[in-house]
């Protein structure tokens, strides 16, 4: 890839604060948005749980975790709803935004879900992890312009059919190329997180290597889904989700916790503190 020389637009605290969903005394669980998460499986149950808890922390009024042959317990996870997709189709559920992918499986069923979401022109869709690998294998690109894709470098390498090393040499060029292929908003995770739409590429000003743990991407996907369900545009949901996600790692470090020790559940626990500080202008 040619080295990109395009200007970067950096999302900082002031810009992120303006993107926060408003909080009103008249809010109720329906007005805060319904998030449907097709995530997790019997092999990777934790991915769905992390995404669901993150969506709740990020403000979604309802969160439904849907899997084929549900592998988690509602007694152990009372805050979100469960749906067994082997018994009830996802299309029968009420939702404002839907996530597909984390731990969901690289298989024909995942592909069928993505195809049906495209066929029905469902507006608010986030694809992550296994969903992106399926898109690459089944040639399901382009996606709808209102969708969000959240690849890490390895997933993007599979989609673009180049090496991860090539992407890391010029992440800006890679995310622009991904946006052209996907035709939706692309959030490229990793050191120096980037968000690209058809007009601009944004750099997120938060984050550090504390986030280098399995599960943190599942958390981010849940956060972005919740923001989309609350009415933020695809670009704004990706930007704010990535900013807050990175800011949890900054707060972890500021409180004298070692960068080796943060885990995905810590990201979820720090979301309320980061959002409070951001809303107060701290």
How would you describe this structure to a colleague?
With 282 residues, this protein is α/β, with parallel strands linked by helices. Helix content is 42%, strand content 13%. It has 10 helices and 10 strands. It has a 10-stranded mixed beta sheet, with helices on both faces. The longest helix is centred in the last third of the chain and has 21 residues, at 234-254. The radius of gyration is 17 Å and the shape is globular. The mean pLDDT is 96.
Task: Give the structure's gist in a few sentences.
By secondary structure, this protein is α/β, with parallel strands linked by helices. The chain has ten helices and ten strands.
SSE order and pairing:
Layout: E1 9-11, H1 13-19, E2 34-38, H2 45-57, E3 62-67, E4 81-84, E5 97-100, H3 108-119, E6 125-127, H4 130-138, E7 148-149, H5 153-160, H6 164-169, H7 171-182, E8 185-188, E9 194-196, E10 201-204, H8 216-229, H9 234-254, H10 264-280
Parallel strand pairs: 1-10, 2-3, 2-5, 3-4, 5-6, 6-7, 7-8
Antiparallel strand pairs: 8-9, 9-10
Helix pairs in contact: 1-9, 2-8, 2-10, 3-4, 4-5, 8-9, 8-10, 9-10
């Amino acid at each position: 890839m040619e080295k990109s020389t395009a200007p970067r637009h950096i999302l900082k605290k002031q810009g992120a604060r303006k993107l926060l969903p408003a909080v009103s005394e008249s809010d109720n669980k329906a007005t805060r948005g319904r998030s449907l998460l097709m995530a997790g499986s019997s092999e990777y149950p934790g991915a769905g749980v992390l995404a669901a808890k993150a969506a709740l922390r990020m403000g979604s009024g309802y969160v439904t975790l849907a899997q084929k042959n549900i592998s988690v317990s509602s007694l152990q996870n009372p805050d979100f709803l469960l749906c067994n997709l082997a018994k009830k189709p996802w299309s029968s559920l009420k939702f404002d935004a839907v996530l597909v992918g984390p731990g969901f499986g690289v298989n024909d069923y995942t592909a069928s879900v993505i195809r049906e979401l495209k066929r029905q022109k469902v507006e608010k869709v986030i694809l992550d992890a296994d969903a992106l690998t399926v898109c690459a294998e089944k040639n399901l690109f382009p996606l709808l312009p209102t969708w969000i894709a959240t690849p890490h470098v390895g997933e993007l390498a599979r989609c673009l059919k180049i090496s991860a090393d090539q992407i890391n040499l010029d992440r800006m060029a890679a995310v622009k190329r991904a946006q052209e292929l996907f035709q939706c908003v692309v959030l490229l995770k990793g050191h120096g997180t980037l968000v690209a739409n058809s007009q601009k590429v944004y750099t997120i000003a938060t984050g550090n290597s504390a986030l280098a743990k399995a599960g943190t991407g599942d958390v981010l996907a849940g956060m972005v889904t919740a923001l989309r369900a609350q009415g933020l545009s695809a670009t704004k949901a990706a930007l704010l989700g990535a900013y807050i996600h990175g800011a949890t790692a900054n707060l972890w470090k500021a409180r004298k916790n070692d960068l080796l020790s943060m885990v995905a559940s810590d990201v979820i626990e720090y979301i309320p503190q980061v959002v409070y500080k951001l809303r107060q202008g701290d």
